[in-house]
Every structure is written in C-alpha cells, then in structure tokens.
Write a structure and sequence with these properties.
CBS-domain, 3-stranded mixed beta sheet, Tetracycline Repressor, domain 2, mainly alpha, single chain
C-alpha cells in the first residue's frame, strides 16, 4: 500500500528534479522498504533515485529487489557500472544479481570485476542451483586453532567490518576443517589468556555444500541457529548460511512447493504476480491442465461403461458430486499431512507402512461417520425419483454409504501413498499431491461407486 501512495510523489520529484528530500527520506528508511517503493516505479525512474544514494546504501537497496527487477535495472547500466555495484554487494547477493542477468551481460560484468571478486563469483557459481553452496556467503570469521581469546578478539575486530555475520566465529585446523565454534558472548566472558579450543562448542550442526538448501533450512530451524556452516567434501569450511538468507530460500521453497502442489509448471522465479506477463502465467498453467483434462476423459469412459446402471437408477447421479468432493477432500487432507511430515523430516519413505496403516485407521473412522451421514441423507430426505421394482430406499442408502466409505478409505490411502512414493524415487512429493491426486481419486471413486451399486443393488 505504501508504494502505491508514494509512487506519484516520487515520480513528481523525479520530473521536477527535486531529489534532495527523497534522498533524505530514504536515509531514514530500511533498504527493504525502499526496494518496495522502487518496484512501483519504472526501472529508469528507480535508477535515477538509486544513483543519488551513496555506494553502500545503493547496494543494500538493490540486494532487496527481486531478481527480475534487478535484471531490468541492469539492462540500463553498462558493464563497468554494474561491476562497481556488484562489488559493493555481499558475495551471495552479488551472485544472485549476476544470475539474474542474460549470459552475455553477465560475462561482461564478471570480466570487469577485480581478480579476488571474480574468483569468489566463479567459486560460488560452481555450486548447483538449489544447493546449500548456492545460497551461502563466504563472509564469515574463521579462527585458526591455537589462538588465545585475546588474539581471537583482535582478529575479529580487524575483520568484522568486511563480514556479513560476526556473532559466531568458527574454529578451523590447518587444513581449514571445522573444529568448533565460539560466540562473541563466549569470548567476552572468557579469560583473555584462555585458548579458544577450551571454550569452543565442538558439536556444531553443519550442512554439505552439495546438499539441498532445504536441509540447511531444516537444520537452522531444528537447532534454532543464527547461521550454519557449509562444508566442502573434505570437511573444510567453505561458507556460511545466515538466518536471513535461509528465510529467503525458505520463501522460494514454499513458493515452488505451492505452485507444484497446484500443478503450476515453469520457472519459479521471484517476480511478483502483477509483474509476471500474462503469457508466462498461461505457459506455466496450460500443460498440466491439458494433461489432467485428457486424463479426466477416463472418468467419462467409466460413466459410459456404467450407462445402463445409471439409466436404471437415476438416483445414483444425485450423489455423484458428494462422492467426488468427499474423496478429493479426504485425499488432499491426507496428502497435505504427509507432505508436511516429509518436509519436516517427521517421517521418511521408510515409514511408509506405518503411515499407511495410520491413515487407513483414520480413513476407516472417517468413512464410517461420512457413510452414516450419507445413509441418513438418502433415507430421510429422498431425492424424489422412482425406484425399480425390488429396490428400496434403505438399499440405495446402504449402497451409497458403503461406496462413500470405501471411497474415503481409498482416497486417503492414495493421498498418503503417492507423496511417499514420489519421495522414495527422489521426486518432489508436492508434484503428486494435487490436483493430480484429485484426478486419480475421481477415477477410482467412480469405479468404486458404480461397482458397489451394481453389486449391492443388482442393476
């Protein structure tokens, strides 16, 4: 809302050339708030304001902008200007900016960086997207084993202004392998002559650089950490993932899971809803929907196969929506519970039998309750359609109730089994959760419904 209110004033200030007040106002704002305001402007307008900020303030604001908007700003700048801007960014934010650029422009900017920054960029670029290494920062404090507390404090004072995180310092051996960590509090309270090894915590949770970033997010949350060290293949300390970077990564993970959960394909970038072109929205949605619609034709084939049953007993048609809706809802509930438990590492695919047995028992109880409700609905509030000779309303109610109970059990078990199977084979459980699950449940539900009716009622 704030960006919408202030955007006209910012535009007016740009047009009139009255930018001193804007710069003064920005000086009192958090970079994230400034970034939010700038996104309401055209990139060329935002650039005018950014260029009036001092170098570090400008870098802090740019690091808060979405990658898509950064790319639009970068298109207005030359390689030397972009190199100067990226040099002011933290290493992980610098890599994010470069990744947002077209390949040719990125190569030009990297070539303009000094040797140290270029080497750091190439090292961070070597980690696959989505891994812990791709979201870590190399700005951390490593203390060689053997230092005293006073020597460690002197080293921290000398390096702190260049580091992103200084609350925790990590102790390493001569080969750079992680031995433990000390906090500023530990160092302040310790005797100056004490060796840091005597006060360090040697039980330090860590994550491998090649591991999924979700593992780092999980450990940061599980152990209530401010940051987590990232280790190379030999156990050497190569970086650090701070809590704020983990929050950004977690938001990306949640966005991707939500989009996959609803069968939205394509790249899961950080562009806002309104900033994403209509054609991109269309492309991201159409393939899955077409595939599911084609798959849904199976439901029509099933109905056609039971055409005689439906014609002889039209009352069955009145309860098909209830069956489909209940099956979809119970299946989605089960899938959501299992996907969440998998993401929180409360269960693994090895627990499949335990999970399925639990969900079966839950489904049985749900099925009994919902089946009873369906029977009472059929018996007490008849649909007003005549019944064939030899078939009574209680018989129809029994058939529908039994079919609904079986549908609840099957959809619940399916909702649990599909994410577990996906996780077992290394796929994202959210991919099979919904609406793919709903389509499968619809098909199985029709089969269960008409088969049950045919067996119970003999039509």
């Amino acid at each position: 809302m704030l960006d919408q209110l202030l955007a006209p004033d910012l535009r007016a200030a740009i047009q009139d050339g009255q930018l001193d007040g804007v710069v003064e106002f920005f000086g009192e704002c958090h970079p994230a708030d400034i970034a939010e305001l700038l996104q309401a402007l055209e990139p060329a307008e935002a650039l005018v304001l950014l260029q009036r900020l001092d170098e570090q303030h400008r870098a802090d604001v740019v690091s808060e902008l979405p990658g898509s908007y950064q790319a639009e700003l970068a298109a207005l700048l030359g390689a030397p200007e972009l190199a100067a801007l990226s040099s002011s960014l933290d290493p992980d934010d610098r890599v994010d900016l470069l990744k947002a650029l077209p390949q040719e422009q990125m190569d030009e900017v990297v070539a303009e960086l000094d040797a140290e920054d270029r080497a750091e960029v190439e090292r961070l670029f070597s980690y696959e997207e989505g891994t812990a290494g791709s979201v870590m920062t190399s700005e951390y404090i490593a203390l060689p084993a053997g230092l005293s507390v006073s020597e460690a404090m002197a080293k921290i004072r000398a390096e702190a202004h260049d580091k992103e995180s200084v609350y925790n310092s990590y102790i390493v051996d001569g080969g750079g392998r992680l031995l433990g960590k000390v906090t500023l509090r530990d160092l302040i309270l310790a005797e100056p002559t004490s060796p840091v090894e005597a006060i360090m915590d040697d039980q330090v949770p860590s994550v491998g650089a090649a591991e999924d970033q979700a593992e780092a997010i999980y450990k940061l949350s599980h152990y209530d950490l401010v940051d987590i060290p990232v280790l190379g293949s030999g156990g050497e300390l190569v970086g650090l993932i701070t809590h704020d970077d983990a929050m950004d990564a977690m938001e990306d993970e949640h966005t991707e899971d939500m989009e996959r959960f609803m069968a939205i394909a394509g790249s899961h970038d950080d562009a806002g809803y309104l900033q994403t072109p209509t054609l991109s929205h269309f492309k991201n949605r159409v393939l899955w929907l077409v595939a599911l619609a084609a798959f849904g034709l199976v439901s029509g084939a099933i109905l056609q196969g039971f055409e005689s049953t439906l014609m002889n007993l039209m009352i069955l048609a009145f309860y098909m929506p209830m069956l489909a809706g209940t099956g979809g809802n119970t299946g989605s509930q089960s899938a959501t519970m299992v996907v969440r438990a998998l993401s929180l590492k409360e269960i693994t695919p090895r627990d499949a039998l335990k999970v399925l047995w639990k969900e079966f028992r839950v489904a049985l109880l749900l099925g009994i309750v919902l089946g009873a409700v369906a029977f009472l609905r059929v018996y007490l509030i008849p649909a007003g359609t005549g019944l064939p000779e030899g078939i009574t309303l209680p018989m129809v109610g029994l058939a529908i109730a039994l079919a609904l109970t079986l549908q609840v059990i099957s959809s619940t078990v399916l909702g649990a089994a599909l994410p577990l199977a996906a996780a077992r084979f290394g796929a994202d459980p959210a991919l099979v959760a919904s609406p793919a699950l709903t389509t499968v449940v619809d098909i199985t539900g029709l089969l269960i419904y008409f088969t049950t009716a045919k067996l119970v009622l003999g039509v």
